[in-house]
Amino acid sequence: MKTWTVTLHPLAEPELMALPADMRARFLHIAEMLEDFGPQRVGLPHIRPLESKLWEMRMQGRDGIARAVYAAIQDRRLLVLHVFVKKTQTTPRSVIATALKRLEART
């Protein structure tokens, strides 16, 4: 029985679809774990906190590393706000700003 629901922000969906198939499969696996067990019971290496209300799903594939930034919203829903290919050691400020802007625009 699923206790949480993972949904995609409309602008995050094409970002996810642009990833290679192996990274999309990894995203689906992590999303299913979050839905089945809840975010409190899934940890590294799958997810980690970023800042304020933001968390990231960590995907790795043959072509590199990608991240999906999400936040918990009302009614046990996790909203994926931004999906991107990671090219630097740290998450760029612009990625966090984009995710926060999408979260604020939603409310």
The largest sheet, given as strand count, sense and whether it forms a barrel, is:
5 strands, mixed
Beta-strand residue percentage: 25-35%
Radius of gyration: 13 Å
Give the overall silhouette: globular
Low confidence ranges? none
Helix content: 25-40%
Number of strands: 5
Report strand order across the widest sheet.
1-5-4-3-2
Mean pLDDT: 94
Figure out the total of helices.
3
Tell me the series of helices and strands, N- to C-terminal: EHHEEEEH
Structural class: alpha+beta
Distance between the termini: 28 Å
Write the layout of secondary structure elements.
Blueprint: E1 5-8, H1 12-17, H2 21-37, E2 47-49, E3 54-61, E4 64-73, E5 77-86, H3 93-106
Parallel strand pairs: 1-5
Antiparallel strand pairs: 2-3, 3-4, 4-5
If you had to describe this structure to a student in words, what would you say it looks like?
With 107 residues, the chain is α+β, with helices and mostly antiparallel strands. Helix content is 35%, strand content 33%. The chain contains 3 helices and 5 strands. It has a 5-stranded mixed β-sheet with strand order 1-5-4-3-2. The radius of gyration is 13 Å and the shape is globular. The chain starts with a strand and ends with a helix. 28% of the residues are buried. The model has no long low-confidence stretch (mean pLDDT 94).
